[in-house]
């Protein structure tokens, strides 16, 4: 499927045009490649049908759609548009009033003739939100590599896993970072110091005993007063942390977890029964679930659910929050992702780009 039939000499807005017979994968590629944050869906005559954003894709994946599915079921048909006689000043006010960042322009024949952008993606604003990276794990499944090296410091493409994470957060404007350490934590602190080399501010928490993937949050010296991002120190991904932060804030969640669809094929044919009667067969069915991707956004209120120096894993924290009727949300991700937990994962990370994972 040719998702962009226009050449580079055409206007930027043409890059966002996507044919209605495209797949969700085509939409993901379009959004990722051109960075316009929107795909404008058209038919073969380039007549406007609707729009697709990152949020539309994630909601579709959460409903069980696959990336090979058609975009027809995720197209936003009631998207706001501008007539061709709306000048750009009016369009900017219109977008601001309706809290949207892009606005397709349609002529009298329902043809797309332009796309107004509220702001430019190239300007990265500094974010005051804290990023906490959990780097205290002992990496027992990665021995002997972790006998004398903490797992987040294992090299991938010539630099530690943790350095890849820090560079990713910095590229999105996050500059306040706390690293939680336990096993061989001095190696992490000696390498990164206060973060000057990366032009970020790095501080540390030190676990006296393993506190799990959430327990170390209670050790933060100056606790955040706004939502903060938590990242497992062994996760390599292209997810944009600012997107999950924005999703969390817009939906007034107390805790948001990035989840990823995981497929596992049953090795046997499944016999469907009702009592002792056979009612059907399914040959080696594929089971699809959403798994924890190790990236979270938390509200400062979570501090009330953590006890100092007490073991707590992130799923347990989410259960506590949910039991108290708090809003806990899943943020479905489609970006490349790898949890470096076993030697095979480390080898995969070393020999493949993120786009190939």
Q: Would you spell out the secondary-structure blueprint of this structure?
A:
Elements: E1 17-19, H1 24-34, E2 39-42, E3 48-52, H2 54-62, E4 82-83, H3 88-98, E5 102-106, E6 112-117, E7 127-134, E8 155-156, E9 159-160, H4 161-171, E10 174-181, H5 185-192, E11 201-206, H6 212-215, E12 228-232, E13 235-237, H7 241-250, E14 255-265, E15 270-274, E16 277-282, E17 286-298, H8 314-323, E18 328-333, E19 337-339, H9 343-351
Largest sheet properties = 7 strands, mixed
Count of DSSP-assigned helices: 9
CA-CA gap between termini: 22 Å
Looking at the structure, the CATH topology of the largest domain is Spore Coat Polysaccharide Biosynthesis Protein SpsA, Chain A
Strands, count? 19
Residues in helices, as a percent range: 10-25%
Q: What do these coordinates show?
A:
The chain has 357 residues and is an alpha/beta fold. The protein folds into 2 domains: 12-117, CBS-domain (Roll); 127-356, Spore Coat Polysaccharide Biosynthesis Protein SpsA, Chain A (Alpha-Beta Complex). The protein is 23% helix and 29% strand. It contains 9 helices and 19 strands. The chain has helices at 24-34, 54-62, 88-98, 161-171, 185-192, 212-215, 241-250, 314-323, 343-351; strands at 17-19, 39-42, 48-52, 82-83, 102-106, 112-117, 127-134, 155-156, 159-160, 174-181, 201-206, 228-232, 235-237, 255-265, 270-274, 277-282, 286-298, 328-333, 337-339. The protein has a 7-stranded mixed sheet with strand order 11-10-7-12-17-14-18, sandwiched between helices. Strand 10, helix 5 and strand 11 (201-206) form a beta-alpha-beta unit. It is globular, with a radius of gyration of 23 Å.
